[in-house]
Amino acid sequence: MLRAIKRIIISSESVNLYGFRVLTDGIDIDQYDKNPIMLWMHNRAFGTKDNVFLPIGNVIELKREELDGVGKVITGQPMFDDTDEFAKSIYNKFENGTLRMASAGLNPKTWSDDESLLMPGQTGYTLVKSVLQEVSIVDIGGNDDALSIALYDDNKELITLSSNGENAQIPQLKQISNDSMKTIQLNAPDVLTKLGLADTAGATEVLAKIDNLVNLSAQKDTEIQTLKTAKEQADAKVTELQNKQTENEVIALVDKAVTDRKIVAGQRDHFIKLAKADKETVEAMFTGMQAAPTVQSQLAADNGGKKDELAELVKLSYDELFENGGLSKLKTLSPDEYEVKMKEKFPSRK
């Protein structure tokens, strides 16, 4: 036997030329493994004619696997009969790439129209259960994975398939006709009750009532849209006013901090920007700040301190002031008090 270098894809789950697809996990390969026959173009030898095609080999080592870009497949290893000249010619064409396609001969067991199994472009049911009977090398495939397919009936007779969709053996998906949507049967009493009309109302009254309801619905839609637009505009105005109020509060907060001498005027814009982002934090920051003293307050504080110091110096005698060096300080703070101390010590002093 001549072992091919390449394995072949026997079956994939793509939609085939005939509009249906086959589930890989549903293919029973046990029977085939016992007789792994490989044919040419699904041709089986019958009778004693000299020109019939005999099997050209076997496909062994079948394996279910997942291939990138293809999905779930069954692959196998082709083995060509080296005692058959025709089989050897097919082998040579397969090895040099002239022939590349394989085809599964399946006996359908269960079809399904389950929508979860459908794929784009599928027109026939999904074959969920089948039995693999033979594998063929073929010249033209039936789908994008370079595969063809053949079906056998329960008598192991090959079913002729057509690529134009006229295959009675393949259940077809139901197509919804637009014509079926044009006529709706209604129960008259129920309709009249729903419309609020008397049982004796005729077609003219029914149509008039329907027109009235349609117009009323359109009017309500317009009113709803008008109210929706008005609400959106009102919400936008409220947001604008809220933003303006917040901005005014921020400016007032920062301006007060400037007035209170907690920040200088040059920092105003910076703190306004911060307060717009987080007003509460900036407000808490200002609360914890001490106001910078004014020049007047500093002078007043200085004068108050000097008065206290002068009062303490006046309490001392000349000798005490002389000893602690307070005379010069007393003279600076109050020349008059200094003269008093000098005259107390030196009565003759003019």
TrEMBL record:
Keywords on record: Coiled coil
Coiled-coil parts of chain: 213-247
Domain of life: Bacteria
Name of the protein in question: Mu-like prophage I protein
The organism of origin for this protein: Solitalea koreensis
